[in-house]
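>> received
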Amino acid sequence: MNPVQNRILQHLEAILTDDHHFLVELKLSPNNGLLTVLLDGDTGVSIDYCALVSRALGEKLDEMEELGKYVLEVSSPGADAPLRLLRQYPKHIGRKLKLEISDGSALEAALTAVTGDQLTLAYSHKEKGKKAVQLERTLAFADIKTAKVIISFK
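>> returned
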């Protein structure tokens, strides 16, 4: 992170004082001055909360001469965005995830538990000519390359 991003991060940390919301990503595009702040919460994040953070951060950014012209976007990552932080997983217990694991394998499984930095996943496995069996797998968060929640409209 450059010095400007570090100052922005300091301002954000002062604004995000409750224990329920957290920063997922901070991006500053040098080409067009677009500052993107992605927030999440242990039980989600509301539009009203994003607006509150946007107003408070905007006031601080206006005082930063080194930032120059900027456009500020404060939002949640979105339902189709990959999970980036371990803290994002517990609220998805019971939901199905599509995972790419660092060993190159892929897995679609329901998240059943998060314990420390370990995720417990349940999935079905069917061999040709046999009945599907339910299996469980525990993965370290560090072994997950990418993970997305599978959105179901059933």
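>> The radius of gyration is 19 Å.
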